[in-house]
Inverse folding.
């Protein structure tokens, strides 16, 4: 892996322009969205086509469950993570969900889903809401840890998001710049706990496009205070730091796409995501070509560790996991 940029494509197959872009050594990853996906076979074919151009590219998707699930037709419709908390056997079911999710994503030819969400549900943030495991930090940590165990058992590395917690800020960072006015001590005591307690199980972290003005004037993803002093220093996290999508409104405080990716990498991100805006992705790429950024270390650990094969639905563990989730009325 050579580059520091993850981008996207427009359709369900690669165009000549896409292929040319993916050949650039500064590009290290590609993320799929719902518009890129028809069914499992098509995703496998698209993944194979991408790997034929660049075998080393990291292929990602957001497959959390609930409303954030890009792979739908022909895939298990997973529950929102908040639905697990009220289950009598919640920890076991969280592990089953993590394993099922990871198995399907890996079988489709991809490397990872950006999961789990470690934000706490303070019942303030509509963009977090049911994506969160819980409002209680200890309970959320327990369930997220189980979900991660399931992911890891299937062969997928886990990415905790959105550091240090998006659950208190009310605005949606996709369309606005959220602000969390709490003190560092308050955040440390509550929202930071899942990240702190799971730091050794997480292979990657994705920071929030949220400003915490009592800590830093910049959003967490552009803040050396958050990424270097607190995440790397206090939490001793040594994994990969992915920016959240630098095309989101919450990232616009630092300028155009070139400024954004420069600021994210300078703050400590290993890879910048620039999605849903090809012109912005090309601008970010030009910036990286000009800067001659050193390739990040550790991205290889995000590659899939196993490939379940396309017959995974005959696997006894698969059948047992689906049976358990159905008995708990978490899936249809």
């Amino acid at each position: 892996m050579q580059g520091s940029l993850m981008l996207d494509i427009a359709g369900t197959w690669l165009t000549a322009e896409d292929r040319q872009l993916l050949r650039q050594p500064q590009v290290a990853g590609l993320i799929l969205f719902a518009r890129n996906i028809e069914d499992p076979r098509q995703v496998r074919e698209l993944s194979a086509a991408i790997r034929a151009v660049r075998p080393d590219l990291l292929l990602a998707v957001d497959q959390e469950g609930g409303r954030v699930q890009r792979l739908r037709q022909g895939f298990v419709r997973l529950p929102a993570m908040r639905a697990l908390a009220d289950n009598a056997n919640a920890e076991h079911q969280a592990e089953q969900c993590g394993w099922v999710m990871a198995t399907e994503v890996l079988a489709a030819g991809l490397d990872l889903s950006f999961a789990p969400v470690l934000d706490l549900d303070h019942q303030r943030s509509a963009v977090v809401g049911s994506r969160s495991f819980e409002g209680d930090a200890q309970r959320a940590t327990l369930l997220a840890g189980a979900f991660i165990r399931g992911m890891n058992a299937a062969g997928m590395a886990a990415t905790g998001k959105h550091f240090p917690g998006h659950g208190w800020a009310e605005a949606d960072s996709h369309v606005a710049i959220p602000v969390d006015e709490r003190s560092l001590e308050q955040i440390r005591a509550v929202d930071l706990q899942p990240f702190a307690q799971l730091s050794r199980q997480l292979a990657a972290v994705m920071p929030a496009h949220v400003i915490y003005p009592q800590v830093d004037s910049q959003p967490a993803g552009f803040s050396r205070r958050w990424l270097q002093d607190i995440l790397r220093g206090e939490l001793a996290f040594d994994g990969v730091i992915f920016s959240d999508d630098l095309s989101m409104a919450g990232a616009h405080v630092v300028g155009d796409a070139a400024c954004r990716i420069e600021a994210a990498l300078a703050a400590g991100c290993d890879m910048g995501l620039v999605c849903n805006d090809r012109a912005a992705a090309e601008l970010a790429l030009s910036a990286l070509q000009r800067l001659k950024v050193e390739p990040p270390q550790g991205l290889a650990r995000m590659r899939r560790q196993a490939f379940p094969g396309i017959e995974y639905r005959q696997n006894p563990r698969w059948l047992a996991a689906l049976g358990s989730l159905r008995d708990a009325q978490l899936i249809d």
DSSP finds ten helices and ten strands in the chain.
